[in-house]
Amino acid sequence: MIRARRVAAAVALLVGVGGGWIASQPGPGGASERAEIPPVFLSDLAARRLGVGPGAQIDLAISPGGPWHPARVVRVYRPARYPTELGQEEIEFRLHLPDLQALAGRGDQVDSIVVRLRDPASASGVVERLNAASLGFRAYTSTDLAAQSSSTFEVITRFHRAIGIVTILASSVFLVAIMTLRGEAMQQQAGILRLLGVSPRTVAGTTLLVAAGVALLGSGIGIGLGFLLSLGINAYYQRLFDTALVFSRITPALVVMATILSALLGVAAGAVAAWRLLHRRPLDQLGR
Fold it and tell me: Which is nearest to 41 in space by CA: 84, 7, 86, 72?
């Protein structure tokens, strides 16, 4: 089976306005006649818009004037959609290669060939040997094709990275402000502890632990909110675009990075607060 993308793209133009190059009709009753009709796989979008299912007979043509070729739907499938195809309402169907050639009226012609290697690591070497053969085609690795078609997503990724950096800077300033206020509230307690003989190192260590705890608590709350928002975003856009693509994902690497950054920022904010606590004498901290 192959995917008739070029034919499918043309079909979508007329089916969307109420009829045209693909039409459904009641199937024949005879078993012999049914066996002679070539099978076709319809995408779920095509099946819904045509109102047909497995066992239905449809007519296919390259142009509205025909010639028309009957086909029988044997399966309704859900095609894997790429991010670049979101919002497109292509009518997709799949035929056996001889049936597709009979429909298109031309044979021994292809637009692209996909080669799957047993060893993906050798893809670059295979591409170099194919291109060096000079057989009238150009070979690419899947990584190269993805890079060429994902420039828009690269821009979005950089934009999100910039937003993340600004958010981290803003949260660090907010954390320092919180610990500064907390340090001012702890001035009297710190003065009493120092007068009782508690070492400045212990007071500073306690302040650092409090700051790190506050930062980790905020990180945990943020990760939980992010997880809930990710679920909501995926549920909404998957339903909107009728796709199984994942639009938002909370990865373990992201959670680890957020936790480490929170701990480091917490320690830095605690160091600032500890310095302000220990910078004054104990009696001054008690107001005397």
Answer: 72
Domain ranges of the chain: 2-104, 113-144, 150-285
191 neighbors 234 (Cβ within 8 angstroms) = no
Give the list of residues 6+ apart from residue 93 with CB closer than 8 angstroms, or none. 4, 7, 8, 11, 22, 40, 41, 42, 43, 46, 60
Q: HSE on the CB side for 261, CA within 13 Å?
A: 18
Beta-bridged to residue 86, according to DSSP, are none
pLDDT tens profile 189-238: 777 777 777 787 887 788 788 888 888 888 888 888 889 999 999 999 88
* Closest to 194 in 3D by CA, of 284, 256, 120: 284
Cβ atoms of 211 and 270 within 8 Å: the answer is: yes
Strand partners, 3: 94
* 111-123 tens-digit pLDDT: 778 888 888 888 8
pTM (predicted TM-score): 0.56
Tokens coding 274: 């500890």
Distance CA 270, CA 107 (A): 73
> In whole angstroms, what is the distance from residue 37 CA to residue 74 CA?
11
- Exposure string of 253-277, with b = 16+ CB inside 10 Å and e = fewer, is eeeeebeeebbebbebbbbbbbebb
Distance, in Å, from the CA atom of 23 to the CA atom of 15, rounded to the nearest integer, reads 8
Q: How far apart are CA 26 and CA 55, in angstroms?
A: 10
